[in-house]
């Protein structure tokens, strides 16, 4: 297994090339003693159902997994709560306004970006839209559509955590509940 910080060759504090593996998730500089930890990034996933028991699904525009199905979501920005992050991500990808109903569960994921593995903790939230009629695929969503729960196949979702999360949702018999 390649160490998650293998591409980090120099200490970010002093620039020393003696930036060495400390343990399975960190590197330590033998010159200045700085230790850098590779921790999981927070990411969010929106589970949005309509009154016809259809799930709002996107088609990924870019790699990783370009062209496969996905759910609206993305990385939480610094200084932002997970709830703020999912509302922002839904708006960026759908042009819709979301309201967070409740936290559902979390799953680990490995997201490859620029040939670098970003370990994430994906936080799944049940959300509702203030208006389901004026949605547009934006940002990194190539397409946006409502998919009946009965037609969903987790294997069509390109990211491992999203496929596992969709499977978990289907097993829980999730369905639309009016607010």
UniProtKB/TrEMBL annotation:
> What InterPro entries does the record tag this protein with?
NUDIX_hydrolase-like_dom_sf, NUDIX_hydrolase_dom
> Domain Nudix hydrolase: where?
39-175
Determine the domain of life of the protein's source: Bacteria
Classification via PANTHER family: ADP-RIBOSE PYROPHOSPHATASE, DIHYDRONEOPTERIN TRIPHOSPHATE DIPHOSPHATASE
User: What name does this protein carry?
Assistant: Nudix hydrolase domain-containing protein
Q: Per the UniProt entry, what species is this protein from, by scientific name?
A: Alloprevotella rava F0323
